[in-house]
Amino acid sequence: GAVVSQHPSWVICKSGTSVKIECRSLDFQATTMFWYRQFPKQSLMLMATSNEGSKATYEQGVEKDKFLINHASLTLSTLTVTSAHPEDSSFYICSASQGAQGELFFGEGSRLTVL
Amino acid sequence: GENVEQHPSTLSVQEGDSAVIKCTYSDSASNYFPWYKQELGKRPQLIIDIRSNVGEKKDQRIAVTLNKTAKHFSLHITETQPEDSAVYFCAAKSSSYKLIFGSGTRLLVRP
Does residue A26 sit in helix, strand or coil? Predict the structure, then answer.
């Protein structure tokens, strides 16, 4: 299947700093990527839909000014957690598909710990 | 809004027995229903999926059934093995192409 790579796999930062997470589709072009957040022992919650060349669409309750999403090319989407706080500590997972009807492929996930 | 409910939250079975996990979805326009297995700290792994034009699909010990009228779909694992122990998530792709996940089922297969 297609490969989606996410980086970094884990990151520790101080409260108040910003962290950028990258999501790349390695062998296909993804016009749409999705960002999920997963707290311990919970499900994957969709945060936003990232569309190449346009603004991301955020789910209800997700602050767009805090979670900045940029999808500048067909193979790269980035999520920046701005002014991170301990409650932002979570497992962030991106996904992409080959077209709207295709199977969704997931990145490895990025574990963020904010001290 | 779009919602997927999943039951049970935990399931413990004896090795060799069958396990069944059930989900319901709210968006009647949903047309794609994947099931994922997730091990601790790892990404979800697709184990089987079904599209809305099919009522049942089987792959060795794993099967999925779909009832579009009732908006139900279920995962069936037969002859369970200890390595089947993990968290399983159902999901539904909505009419807006977003994949919405169920709350997850923690399956424990006792040797």
Answer: coil
- With CA atoms as reference, report the closest residue to B47 among B83, B98, B12: B83
First and final C-alpha spacing in chain B: 41
Which chain B residue lies closest to A97 (C-alpha atoms)? B97
At A33-70, the pLDDT tens digits run 999 999 999 999 999 998 888 889 999 999 999 999 99
Q: Could you give the CA distance from residue A106 to residue A5 in angstroms, rounded to a whole number?
A: 8
Q: Which residues of A touch B97 (CB under 8 A)?
A: 32, 49, 100
pLDDT above 90: residue A85: yes
The answer to whether A30 and A94 are in contact (CB under 8 A) is: no
CB distance A44 to A94 below 8 Å:
no
